[in-house]
Amino acid sequence: FPSQVMGLSRVSSRHSGAQLAYGLVSLAAITGSIGCPGGGVTLFSNYIPPGEEPGNEKNPASQRPGLVGAGSGSAVWRAIETGKPYPIRGIIWDANALGFVPRGADIREALKNMDLIVHLGQYPNLTYHHSHVVFPVSSFLETEGLVFTGVGRTLQWANRVVEPRGQCRAADDFWGGILQRMGLARDLPFIDGDGRVNIRDMTRHFLSANPLTSGITPELLDPEINTPGGIQWPVGGEKDLEYPSHRAAVRGSEGLFRPGSRFPGAEKRFPTPSGRVRISPKEIAEEKGFEEFTRYKDLPGVGSRAADHYKGNRFILVAGEVVDYLPSAGFRALVQKPDKPLFVQIHPKRAKELGIQNGETVVVENHLGKIEAPAWVTDHVDEETVFCPVGTDTYDPSYPFESPCGLMDFVPETENCGRGYLEAAAVKVRKK
User: Fold this and answer.
1) Considering the entire predicted model, what is its pTM?
2) Residue 361: its H or E element
3) Nearest-CA neighbor of 178 among 95, 71, 90, 112?
């Protein structure tokens, strides 16, 4: 019986996440669920390993040896703090980047040496307060554009609901203005002389340039002009726009990787070096970019440097996004400020041992810093674990607490194929 195996956001970018992602793929492979209706693997919003992106083999200029990549572990933050492999003197960021950085206090101190920091945002969060220039961007309700996920095959279109307020403009206009002023917009017909971007024409330009989406246009996706629901790539022409079954909610190809089929644009069923799904960790580790696949490193903060810090009071700090957090906004989507903004989740047994009551302020600390926030005594966490939401900062109107990511260390660029992301650290907890 076919099963759909789904991975949540950023599975492959967590600590040991590459193993988890391949575990999900292997589960679908050994149960025979790949390439059949109702089966397969969906890893929502995950990353392609660096160097494996489509087009890199055809465009060597897209791989700049020695340059720090924004998605490669903690490379950018390390370069900002240490100046290695070279100093970074300026940065352009959006949303609330400082709510997710490792070594938060050290990074904020290092930002004082930056020449130019530009923030594309909507709210006065921590990142806003550490920027020299702020470009007020419109929200998703105030602009139109393509709706998609990193690995999801369905493309949709969202129309503008309300006009932008004040001087807010789409972030596209910022980048269009940069390109226009640098003389790099001559071959981009969707950017006018003032640097403004026609989002429909831009979308049409890039969809038509890719053979997997060349048959899709903004007009075909627009739910006010055509059938709503979206279109799944690959689409090369009208023949690919039929509904695959009477139960389908979207048009396009229902599934890939069917037995005897080929992946679009490839001569293989699967677009892998071998043309097969490998489930052997040893074989995967032999492929380029996956050398660290079989190595599992110690939990950050458990080394000898921090051993004396805990003295029996040691927890694993786990951080993650919560359902009402909007990364693009930088704040929680709360209708009103909560009476008790509970934050640090700790098991009742451990809370009793430490004399901590629900709602009391606790200190979560390690050798990298500390957080002070109200305790949330709950059995939703393991006895050896404390959980804190990510993305918060001291300017958050509802949860004005330091981000737990600041207690986590840099992630090596080699870990998880260069996509390593913060997940956990060793900490101690005490009543303030």
Assistant:
1) 0.77
2) strand 361-366
3) 90
